[in-house]
Specification:
binds S-adenosyl-L-homocysteine; two-stranded antiparallel sheet; seven-stranded mixed beta sheet; Rossmann fold; 25% strand; 218 residues; single chain; alpha/beta
Length: 218
Amino acid sequence: MRQTEDTYRHKGLRKKLVDLVRSKGITDEKVLEAIATIPRHYFLDSAFDEVAYEDKAFPIAASQTISQPYTVAYQSQLLEIKPFIKVLEIGTGSAYQASVLAEMGAQVFTIERQKALFENNKQFDFIKKYRNIKFFYGDGYEGLPTYAPFDRILITAAAPDIPPRLITQLKTGGMMVIPVGSGEVQVMKRLIRQPDGSMKEEVYDKFSFVPMLQGKKE
Ligand code: SAH
């Protein structure tokens, strides 16, 4: 069961979470505002109500996770989101990250390979307010050629390598933020597509994501 009520207690906890994320080094005020606005407890089962505003990842359906708020903020900050830019997200999961991007004004296209999670989000009333999110059931390795090119591509699962098809769906000057690595720990990278088609690579901190897997799952 989902929670649908946003109490003063929730709002207070959310404010503390924003302070914590800020103290860990997030400076993009638009990112912090989005976290302050979105009721994260709506994205979790009511069993997690007490802990929804701790800076931790939690289990959702299909053995997947909702990312840690700091991680969501970190990736969102690296993406340098501006209103109306087109963002492709791989790994919808709970749709919390997609909501943060939508709250910041991006046009979000998000893909999930787990059918159960994709279906769950269809019945998620709160998310319907974000008319700027489009949900897709599919394999993120393929991207969305029909809607390409994108200004930004965000991968929210651990990728063993940079998926080549996604690179081709990025605009010149566009950025991809991706945790790369096949072990327990991955390194966050930001790739910026150059006019000659090559990618400038920047390396950031270490994180731990669930794996990006091939193909769709029924
Ligand atoms: N962004 C999510 C966190 C997702 S966890 C949130 O805010 O809650 C990573 C998600 O990526 C999982 O739901 C997993 O099923 C999905 N995933 C893994 N490989 C994928 C692929 N190839 N295509 C699309 N989704 C994928």
